[in-house]
Design goal:
Strand order of the largest sheet: 4-3-7-8
Order of helices and strands: HEEEHEEEHEHEHHEHEHEHEH
Number of domains: 2
Distance between the termini: 94 Å
Shape: elongated
Structural class: alpha/beta
CATH superfamily of the largest domain: Nitrogenase molybdenum iron protein domain
Number of strands: 12
CATH topology of the largest domain: Rossmann fold
Low-confidence stretches: 1-8, 10-29
Largest sheet: 4 strands, parallel
């Protein structure tokens, strides 16, 4: 009995050692699984090391999640952060170079659900290339996307930090303007045809966070075409445009000819760099802050 009592602790220690070893090995090889914006499960056996993003916004999100160094390619107009400009291009967001994509042997592709050609993204998925479909529609979706991409890339700490910063920044803006006097806003995302956003769009959420009211929030399409006459009929207090480039405010020029508009009478025609408000990335916080400042100016001019 004495011999057995001496051996049992040793056997227990050996058992615990192997148990902890196999647990550690199984944990290291556990799948990294997240649900994308189409509610598809995307699983990787190990952190992604060769990532391709198929929209400029997706490229920004990958960098913001801490995985920029793992990117091997992007599409044209992927210009932020500056390091993104050095990446090889695999076509444009609406016309992908399939041969170039496959030649780079990616282990993760970030696709734009409503922007990339469906037939091409379906081909990529059919080839067993892991494809994460990104389609953030609200601020909360952007934060969640950062966390999910960071999980797939093994950069959880950076992704979590970026997600938390966006959440707290937007919450602060909402709190600051919660009791602000409402300002009616027309936001122009395109000139010809004239286009705006409805209440389900990210830009509309930014307008709301600043105490503004999107005059076309009730339209059914996410980015509806409208007429100049409909804008005149709504007579917004503020008109905001993104323009063709980061510093091109020419889209506002046409509205100056309508002297009866409140926005023109009060000099409330504002330009915001489109990449800060029209891409679903953490830089939306910068664009929303600019928007809030403009609406504060409009209130002061009453």
């Amino acid at each position: 009995m004495r011999r057995k009592s001496k051996k049992l602790p040793a056997l227990c220690r050996l058992f615990l050692f192997f148990a902890s070893f196999f647990f550690a090995v199984s944990w290291a090889h556990a799948d990294r699984c997240v649900a994308d914006d189409l509610e598809r499960q995307v699983c990787l056996g190990q952190p992604a090391e060769r990532i391709i993003a198929l929209s400029p916004g997706a490229t920004e999100l990958v960098f913001a999640a801490g995985a920029g160094e793992k990117m091997v390619a992007a599409v044209s107009f992927s210009d932020y952060p500056p390091a993104a400009r050095q990446l090889p291009h695999v076509g444009s967001y609406n016309r992908l170079d399939m041969e170039a994509i496959l030649a780079l042997e990616p282990d993760l592709i970030i696709a734009w659900q409503s922007g990339n050609p469906q037939t091409q993204t379906e081909q990529l998925a059919a080839m067993k290339v892991p494809v994460y479909f990104s389609e953030p529609r609200r601020f909360a979706d952007i934060s969640s996307t950062l966390e999910r991409l960071a999980t797939l890339a093994g950069t959880e700490k950076v992704g979590q930090g970026a997600a938390d910063a966006l959440r707290s920044g937007i919450a602060a803006l909402r709190e600051r303007h919660a009791s602000a006097a409402p300002v009616t806003v027309f936001y122009q995302i395109w000139d010809d045809p004239l286009m705006t956003v409805n209440g389900k769009h990210l830009i509309s959420e930014a307008i709301q966070a600043c105490g503004g009211v999107n005059i076309f929030a009730d339209l059914p399409a996410l980015a509806p075409r409208i007429s100049a006459e409909s804008v005149l009929g709504k007579n917004p207090e503020v008109i905001v445009a993104g323009g063709m480039g980061e510093a091109d405010s020419s889209w506002l020029t046409r509205w100056k000819t309508f002297s009866s508009l409140q926005a023109v009478k009060r000099d409330n025609l504002f330009f915001i760099a489109p990449s800060t408000l029209q891409r679903p990335t953490p830089r939306l916080l910068l664009g929303t802050r600019s928007l809030c400042r403009h609406l504060e100016s409009a209130r002061a001019r009453r």
